[in-house]
Q: What sequence folds into this?
């Protein structure tokens, strides 16, 4: 293993751990049959301001880190072998 592979492996491991921690911090959404059948909707202040809540921020961060994780894996699998030849 080259030094570059070790560095990228450590970065991938760090991103993976952060994604896991952020996913565990998110709250579960209730999925009961009553709300699914009745089509219950909540028009509350919380629902109208969803874009500013902690939940949305965690979801956006999870999405961004997942894209970074995917890009790092592709880079390490496709580009890195060409560089270290």
A:
């Amino acid at each position: 293993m080259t030094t570059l592979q070790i560095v990228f492996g450590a970065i991938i491991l760090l991103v993976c751990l952060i994604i896991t921690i952020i996913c565990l911090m998110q709250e579960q959404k209730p999925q009961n049959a009553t709300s699914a059948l009745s089509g219950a909707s909540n028009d509350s202040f919380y629902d109208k301001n969803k874009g500013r809540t902690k939940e949305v921020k965690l979801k956006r961060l999870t999405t961004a880190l997942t894209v970074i994780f995917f890009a790092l894996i592709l880079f390490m699998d496709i580009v890195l072998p060409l560089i270290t030849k």
